[in-house]
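Moderator note: this is an archived Q&A kept for reference. The question asked for a predicted structure of one protein chain; the sequence and the answer are reproduced below.
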Amino acid sequence: MDTVHNGQLKNLKNLASSLRFRLFLLVLLAILPASAVVTYTGLRARSEDLPWDLSVLFLGALVAFGATWAVTTRWVLRPLSRMVDATRRLAAGDLEARTGLAAERGEIGQLAQAFDEMSDRLRQRQVEAGQSKALLEASEAKYRGLYDSLKDGVLMTDVSGRILECNQGFLDMLGYKKEEITGLTNQDITPLKWRRIDGGMIKYQVRPKGYSGEYEKEYIARDGRVIPVVARVWSINDGRGGLKALWGIMRDISERKQAEEEMKTALRFLEIANQRKGLASLLREFAEETKRLTACDSVGIRLLDESGRIPYAAHVGFSRAFCESESHLSINMDRCLCINVIKGAANSSLPFYTAHGSFYSNRTTGLRSVPEEVKGKTREVCNTMGYESVALVPLRLGDRIIGLIHVADHKENMVPLPLVKQLEQAAATVGVCIERALAEEELGRNVERLQAANKELEAFTYSVSHDLRAPLRAINGFSQVVMEDYGGKLDDTGKRYLHTIVSSANKMGQLINDLLAFSRLGRAALNSESIDMDSLVRDVCREAEREAAGRCMEFVVGSLPPAQGDPTMVRQAVVNLVSNAVKFTRPREKAHIEIGARVESGENTYYIKDNGVGFDMEYYGKLFGVFQRLHREEEFEGTGVGLAIVQRIIQRHGGRVWAESKPDAGATFSFALPREPG
């Protein structure tokens, strides 16, 4: 605007000078012709008065010139001077400058009015410019705040990689200050292996397309840490189709990378845990995998034993002498860092303990100078053996600490906190694996005990089947002889006693047979195939009707889906349940027995419902036990083994059996079998 003002001032000055010169010429042109006429006339009239006439002519010309000059000054020069002054003030920045001549007539008035209008327009433009500047500054402040508040890093470089601009997010990501990063290049803060990738992105994506896709790279932080990021880059053109600069957005993915590494570690440890090996072999593999994970010299796994000592159950890299010197430590009498971790006495407020109760130090020599009241009593054996980096991570079963993972290296800074957190994740897997391995070992011992018990049961069964059958046969045989040879000599009481002996012997024989059948079910091979349950049940019902000839009975058999199992065993279960229904409906004038099925998720459920005497559910716990009876023998015969046989058959097929009843309101027995072979 100053340039415009100066130009206008110069134009007005030139105009004023031009007007003065033109007025002067006008006066001369007005005076000279008149003077010439007067002079000519006077000379002709009387030449003797020539000097006087010339004087008069000169004075007249002078008066005319003065009058003309006065008029010019009043009506031309003064307005022009005021316009020049107003223009000078306007050029100096006074937008309130006015000529005060807008009311004048003629060209001067028009010129003054044009000047005032120009001044008004300049003032309006200045107001608008001020408003635009304020808006621009507010907008710039707003977007600068947004730019700097972005958590993602924003970076701008020239074509050579020199850093031109970056936001606070980028500075925070790498730990730099604004003045520290000025003058650096993108290459200075990028690891060598990623520089070629950056160059390839610019060459093959940014230059031809104007932008790149997302890609991973790394930056070097001010403290030397490597920061993984996801980057995307755009081009800034110079207006002639050339590349002027680059800008990009970088997102720190350290947490994601850490999570990925933790997941990989967890998967590797789970793979080891899923191997069906003994506890010693598993712990050895865990120690070797931990050594690969940490790249440390030595790794050991220590388990707390019943006496309170924490010997090494597995180790890699530690010397035998070192392990032997540490294994005798006891939580009952010793105090050291290992004992603190095992006992859960780690103070998480101290810089060398984690919230999870782990200890770690990347320079144990420095730890020696820490007062004992701060670090606790420690024997500092690791440092004595030259281990500078040490981590002790507790192994837990639920809330109980059962041991620890011991990691050590002779170099410094080998167990940073992120790695210790990975070890804590791995320790959780190791703890579960130890729990499972211990449970499997206990299960193995239980299986051995069960096998021993089964052998004893088989021996008992053999004894029953051979040693007891002979006396029973003798009782039956001699009772029969007595009845045949001496029956006539016995009175009714003697005969009744003899019949009781024979009946008891027969019952004992039946009990032995049922017991042998029940025992054999546990050892018999199970041959699974598809069973036509409809045909099987109807055949069993016909046999039951023949055996209960003379009774009024009604069997209602619904649609029964096929079952999967051993036909012989499943038939035995159905026979026992139908026989039960037939027996306990005997007091009814008409027995009603309904057999049906339901198809449910993954299994078929079959039921046998009767209108018999039922039973009290209070005694349900005895229902499927061996030799258990819910009714008196005088009312209903039986040995109390039939339902126990049903339960063993169904359970061997991977199914389940249950019953529902009320006294004198019938009973419903149900069993479910999987539709697929177990």
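Archived answer notes: The mean pLDDT is 79.
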